[in-house]
């Protein structure tokens, strides 16, 4: 069980946007970085998360205009985050229990990054593969 901070070292950059940006601009940022969610930051402080799910449920299905609507109007403000020392297994359990797909990593007030459920799945699967390979090598002598 590795700390989630180890996984963050594989990711480069913290992608975020300001709450006053339009939803359309946020969608473009999602597409540019090929991610499903972005942290919403104001003056260096995490104030929310904007995800594809927020867009589909609160804009597209509601018939609202993404070029006029601001991110602050639809972002998720009840942000669940973890400390960098939290294990990958604990993060996976939390994401499963809370039915979230993206998890910001915060050290005090400093935002360190965000991981997705896919990032965690890939990491856990790789750890399991490494363990299997190690055991096969050990058994083979």
In short:
This protein is α+β, with helices and mostly antiparallel strands. The protein has one domain: CBS-domain. It is built from five helices and five strands, in the order αβαββααββα.
Give structural notes.
The protein is α+β, with helices and mostly antiparallel strands and 141 residues long. It has five helices and five strands; from the N terminus they run αβαββααββα. The protein has a single domain (4-140), classed as CBS-domain, CATH 3.10.580. The chain has a three-stranded mixed beta sheet. It has a two-stranded antiparallel ribbon with strand order 4-5. Helix 4 (88-98) packs across helix 5. The two termini are 26 Å apart. The model has no long low-confidence stretch (mean pLDDT 92).
- The portion of residues forming beta strands comes to 15-25%
Classify the helix fraction into a percent range. 40-55%
State the major sheet: 3 strands, mixed
Q: Report the top-level CATH class.
A: Alpha Beta
The CATH homologous superfamily name equals CBS-domain
How much is the average pLDDT? 92
CATH topology: CBS-domain
From the N-terminal CA to the C-terminal CA, the straight-line distance is 26 Å
Number of strands: 5
The second-level CATH architecture is: Roll
Number of helices: 5
Low-confidence stretches: none
Going across the biggest sheet, name each strand in turn: 1-2-3
């Amino acid at each position: 069980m590795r700390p989630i901070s180890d996984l963050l070292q594989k990711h480069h950059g913290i992608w975020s946007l300001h709450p006053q940006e339009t939803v359309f601009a946020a969608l473009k940022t999602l597409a540019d970085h090929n991610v499903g969610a972005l942290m919403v930051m104001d003056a260096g402080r995490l104030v929310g998360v904007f995800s594809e799910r927020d867009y589909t449920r609160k804009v597209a299905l509601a018939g609202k205009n993404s070029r006029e609507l601001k991110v602050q109007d639809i972002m998720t403000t009840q942000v669940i985050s973890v400390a960098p020392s939290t294990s990958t297994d604990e993060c996976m359990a939390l994401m499963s229990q809370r039915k979230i797909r993206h998890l910001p990593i915060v050290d005090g007030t400093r935002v360190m990054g965000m991981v997705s459920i896919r990032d965690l799945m890939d990491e856990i699967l790789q750890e399991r593969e490494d363990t299997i390979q190690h055991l096969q090598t050990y058994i083979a002598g």
